[in-house]
Design brief:
Largest sheet: 9 strands, mixed
Radius of gyration: 30 Å
Structural class: alpha+beta
Number of strands: 16
Length: about 475
């Protein structure tokens, strides 16, 4: 490699507040265009913004969770630029004095841990949305929907510490997991709740002078971020190798072709003519408020990951899977609370049968019809020897589709496990008599056929025979 990539990410996190950052309009997604607006978010002359306190609290939560310092005083600024979906002609953001500064996240890629610095986190309002459509009587047109205007955002700006697309994705996934755990963002990337701008440049290996960067705007999936960064790295290297120069510009990523394309020249900070917003007083945050927010923070993914290993005895793999999603972790912990002596069994069922059915039906754990109480009742039937593990999976599928209690399903379908040694011996005798050739093979030393006999016995018992008893009695009879 003759060149080294230098990557910094600007992540926009849409906050889960009920109302907008500077007015009382709803932030609900998918409403009729322009139905959630008022003079403030429409930019009407004389309309004055009023700061939503919940937005500030969420910003503090994000800062504490990413190891940032919380500024005792921060200031809102006007960022001036023209775009058709920006009704005021400026965006209210923060510039010189943001709310959070100098944080970091540690990521792991290929077994190596790396610290990625976070320059700042600041609050701002979102712009509206242009909808390009065929308008009856007007033909192709661009319509403006201002429902999203004034929706609260956090912009989380990393240091240019990232050196590959894989590192970028690892950082984004960790940040995404944190904001969802905090309950400040739903993390829905398809709806734009979590999206990123990727700043990419390349420099010769060994150099400490960064190259000219480009910014690829509003990439809203981890896969697309990886593709966009990898394409941009390759494009810039090819351009330099051919004697050209990288131009500082804003680019868009086309997921259909996998390439980035030029959108517009990239502005510098002075082009936006930042100045403090005269309609909003400086924001002063007391230490008491910060500490109150700190005490309200939930257990974050890293701490939960370590606890699952240290206290619950799970493997690193199991802990990683079970903590990847906040609601999945909550479901698992609810199950463990009901069966504290069966942690590993619970983990296997949540990662196995529960995850399988959710994946098959494209559902999230919030839509799981098998409650922790129902799953615990099923595990108790297994523990008591009432049903086998194989039968339990059949019962689970029935629970999933009907919501019935496992005991009722077992009784209704006659699935009680056979633990009568006399009945099991009878079945084994019949299987051995029908397969005398395999009996002789076993007794001549070819003990691999033992599995064949187990399968035949379980088939003959319709899966109801107690597996432990089957193995014990079968082995004795085969050995004569």
């Amino acid at each position: 490699m003759k060149y080294q990539a230098v990557i910094g990410l600007e992540v926009h996190v849409q906050l889960l507040t009920n109302t907008k950052i500077f007015c009382g309009c709803s932030t609900k997604f998918g409403a009729t265009p322009n139905s959630q607006t008022c003079p403030v978010c429409l930019g009407m002359p004389g309309a004055l913004p009023v700061l939503n306190k919940k937005v500030v609290e969420y910003a503090i939560r994000a800062g504490l969770a990413t190891n940032c310092g919380i500024a005792p005083k921060s200031v809102f600024a006007r960022k001036n630029y023209f775009y058709p979906d920006l009704p005021k002609g400026y965006q209210i953001s923060q510039y010189e004095l943001p709310i959070c500064l100098s944080g970091h996240l540690d990521i792991e890629v290929d077994g190596d841990v790396k610290r990625i610095g976070i320059t700042r986190i600041h609050m701002e309002e979102d712009a509206g949305k242009l909808v390009h459509a065929d308008v009856p009587g007007a033909g192709d047109a661009s319509c403006v929907d201002l429902n999203r205007a004034c929706t609260p955002l956090l912009e989380i700006v990393s240091e240019p510490d990232i050196r590959s697309a894989d590192e970028a994705v690892a950082y984004l996934k960790k940040l995404h997991q944190i904001v969802v755990y905090l309950g400040i963002c739903d993390g829905n990337m398809e709806e734009g709740s979590f999206r990123c701008d990727a700043n990419v440049s390349v420099m010769p290996v060994g150099s400490d002078t960064f190259g000219t960067r480009t910014e690829t705007k509003n990439v809203n999936s981890f896969r697309f971020v990886k593709q966009a960064i990898e394409y941009e790295i390759e494009r810039q290297i090819d351009l330099i190798e051919e004697g050209g120069k990288v131009i500082q510009e804003t680019r868009l990523f086309d997921p259909n072709t996998g390439v980035t394309r030029s959108m517009r020249g990239k502005e510098e900070a002075h082009d936006y003519r930042y100045f403090p917003d005269p309609d909003l007083v400086p924001l002063v945050i007391s230490n008491d408020w910060v500490e109150d927010v700190r005490l309200s923070l939930p257990e974050l993914p890293e701490a939960k990951f370590r606890r699952y290993q240290d206290e619950l005895g799970l493997t690193a793999y199991d802990a990683e899977v079970l903590t990847a999603d906040r609601l999945l972790a909550r479901y698992f912990e609810s199950c463990v609370a009901l069966a504290p002596q069966q942690v590993k069994t619970v983990a296997n069922w949540v990662m196995g049968e529960v995850a399988r059915k959710l994946n098959d039906e494209g559902k999230g754990i919030a839509d799981c019809p098998v409650t922790p109480q129902l799953l615990n009742a099923l595990l108790k039937l297994m523990e008591a020897g009432t049903i086998s593990g194989k039968i339990a999976k059949t019962v689970f599928d029935e629970m999933w589709s009907t919501g019935k209690e496992p005991a009722a399903i077992v009784e209704e379908k006659g699935l009680v496990q056979v633990s009568d040694t006399g009945e099991i011996e009878r079945i084994i005798d019949e299987v051995m008599a029908a397969n005398q050739g395999q009996v002789n093979e076993f007794r001549s030393g070819k003990e691999k056929v033992f599995g064949f006999f187990v399968g035949q016995v379980m088939r003959a018992s319709k899966g109801k025979a107690n597996p432990a008893l089957v193995n014990e009695i079968l082995l004795k009879k085969l050995r004569g």
